[in-house]
Amino acid sequence: MRLGKIRTPFYRIVVIDSKKARNGLSIEEIGRYAPGKEPSLVEVNSERAQHWLKVGAQPSAAVTKLFKLTGDWAKFTGEGSTANTVAPQPARFDKKANYEAAVKAAANEPAEGATTAKQKAKDKLAAKSEPTKVEEVAVSEPSKSEEVAEVSEPTSVEEVAASEPLKSEEVAEVPQEVTTTEAVAAEEKPVE
Questions:
Q1: What is the rounded average pLDDT of the residues 59-69?
Q2: Domain range list for the chain
Q3: Using an 8 Å Cβ cutoff, are 52 and 66 in contact?
Q4: Would you list the DSSP string of 20-72?
Q5: Are 32 and 11 in contact (CB under 8 A)?
Q6: Is the whole model's pTM more than 0.90, yes or no?
Q7: What φ, ψ does residue 52 adopt, rounded to 5°?
Q8: Which candidate, 46, 30, 29, 26, places its Cα nearest to that of 86?
Q9: What are the tens digits of pLDDT across the range 90-146?
């Protein structure tokens, strides 16, 4: 009996009256055949198949080939090997076992890695309240040769001018009027 979608059939191996339609009322289902799987799925209840063959049921050509693959035809006729030559199906992915393993693994994880809204808010608040860490740069003690060099350098403008004569290109113009910060602050006050 053919079932399934277009281009993906699967069949039920059934015992049926020869006068009935292909998908008509069956007497008993004795197996399944799914050619679309790799390897093809062939399952036959050998005990029930032998019973119906002994009673006189006539298998179709396709079912006879399936019986030959499973070894049921050789058991009935006594010809050939009775070994099942159908390739076994690979182990199926067990969703329930995979789910249970994931739940068990999740139960063992630490709670601090939670991603709930409450936990995110706590982390954000903690990040804001923590002062930013400033990296301190280690300042080394100046060596004695550097200290001597610093002392020997002139510290005032007059000493620099006296020690080195300046070229005309290096002389910069000094502005006539020098403003102090107090004068600038007094100018910016609004008049009432």
A1: 91
A2: 2-77
A3: no
A4: S-TTS--SEEEEEEETTSSSPEEEE-HHHHHHHHHHT----HHHHHHHHHHTH
A5: yes
A6: no
A7: -70, -35
A8: 46
A9: 788 888 888 988 888 887 766 555 567 887 788 788 888 876 665 555 555 655 555
Give the Cα separation of 156 and 165 in Å (integer): 15
> 153 is written with which tokens?
């350098």
Rg of the chain (C-alpha set)? 48
DSSP tag of 18: T
Gap between the Cα atoms of 133 and 122, Å rounded: 20
Give just the sign of the alpha carbon dihedral 61, 62, 63, 69.
Answer: positive
- 85 has a pLDDT exceeding 60: yes
Q: Within the chain, where are the H helices?
A: 46-55, 61-70, 72-77, 95-107, 117-129, 144-152, 157-163, 181-188
What's the CA gap between 184 and 182, in Å, rounded?
A: 5
The residue written with tokens 């006729």 in the block is 77
Homologous superfamily (CATH) of 2-77 is: Ribosomal protein S16 (3.30.1320.10)
Residues 6+ apart with CB under 8 A from 4: 10, 36
